[in-house]
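seq:
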Amino acid sequence: MAKRRPPSIDLTVAPDAAMAFRRRLHGWFKKHSRDLPWRQTRDPYRILVSELMLQQTQVSRVLDFYRRFLDRFPDLYSLADARPKKVMDAWEGLGYYARARNLHALAKHVTTEQDGVIPSEPIALRALPGVGAYTAGAVASFAYEKRAALVDTNVARVLQRVFAPQLDPKSGPGLKQLWLIAEQLLPRTGKTTWTHNQALMELGALVCTARVPRCGICPVTADCATFPRLEAAAALAATADAPPTRKGKRRGAATG
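struct:
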């Protein structure tokens, strides 16, 4: 007997809902965003280095490595000309060394085959060594201010909780749906998309975290499909943990 396909789910975000979400998110980001070095540049090489370093690695660990690596290899050509051992030495301690090998291979390819120019379009970026869908969107958006979506772990968590709590962000179909939602939420211009994508990532890193979502300071609880459920669960837990109410004395009871 053939398996029955699960019913399709309409995950279309209404334009007015998308606009309200963006307005709250962007306003929060302007007040609370961290001052990170890769946010102060539009150099595609420097942004690419930061994005590869940040894969599966905390920002606090990347900061020092990022500065030291760029001091040693300030551009694509210096990286492409370096011996593999020198590149690996500069990456030492950051882990996931395939990222360093891919970055070195990318530098060699771009300097020899593409006149040293890192592509600006996500499709062309994805053809480079070690560049997946997220990294391609990040470089297109953050370096070239293209209107490009991106979904990393933090963004997937935010979008799933706010718009589609029924999805599994770790499954292929679920992640595909979240990419579609990310596309629907994009602002009209690439410059505003830079702010939008940075803000989504920042919200997932600082507020809508994996272990303990900080709903009390979240700017988008009014838009969030998960928040009412979490609020109800918190209220129920508070009631269960409350000490029993002491009863007053009965009328007419004798006093000592």
